[in-house]
Design a protein that fits this description.
Blueprint (H helix, E strand, L loop, with lengths): L1 H22 L10 E14 L2 E7 L5 E5 L2 H9 L4 E9 L16 E9 L2
Parallel strand pairs: 3-5
Antiparallel strand pairs: 1-2, 1-4, 2-3, 4-5
Length: 117
C-alpha cells in the first residue's frame, strides 16, 4: 500500500511539473521570435516614395513594423488611432549600428492589428 502512494505522488508531481513548465514558456512565432502586444500610434518615416512605418508608444519607444504590403497599406490609413499590434519581436543586437530604417527599440513582425479602446 505504501508503494502505491509513492507511485501515485510521483506521477502526480510529474504531471504538475509538466503543466507548470509548459505554461511558463514564452510564446513564439513561426520564426522563433517572442510574441508581444504593443499599443501606440502609427508613424510614417522617410519621404515618398521611400517611406516606412513605425509604432510609437506612450513611453516614447519606437518599433519598426514589418508586414505584408496589404497590412502596411491598411496601417497607413489608421494613422492617428491608438492601435494594439501583436507580432513577433526582434530586438536590436547589442552594439550593432542601426541603418536608416531601424529603431533602437527593435522590430515587430505584425501578426494582428486592432484598434485599442
Amino acid at each position: 500500500m505504501n508503494n502505491r502512494r509513492i507511485i501515485f505522488i510521483t506521477v502526480l508531481f510529474m504531471c504538475f511539473a509538466t503543466i507548470f513548465a509548459m505554461g511558463n514558456r514564452a510564446k513564439l512565432d513561426e520564426a522563433g521570435r517572442s510574441i508581444i502586444s504593443v499599443k501606440g500610434n502609427i508613424v510614417v518615416f522617410g519621404n515618398e516614395p521611400h517611406t516606412w512605418l513605425g509604432l510609437k508608444t506612450e513611453d516614447d519607444k519606437v518599433y519598426n513594423l514589418v508586414a505584408e504590403e496589404k497590412i502596411l497599406t491598411d496601417l497607413r490609413k489608421k494613422q492617428g488611432l491608438i492601435l494594439e499590434i501583436t507580432g513577433g519581436y526582434e530586438p536590436v543586437e547589442e552594439g550593432k549600428k542601426l541603418n536608416l530604417t531601424q529603431f533602437p527599440d527593435g522590430t515587430i513582425y505584425v501578426h494582428s492589428v486592432k484598434v485599442a479602446k
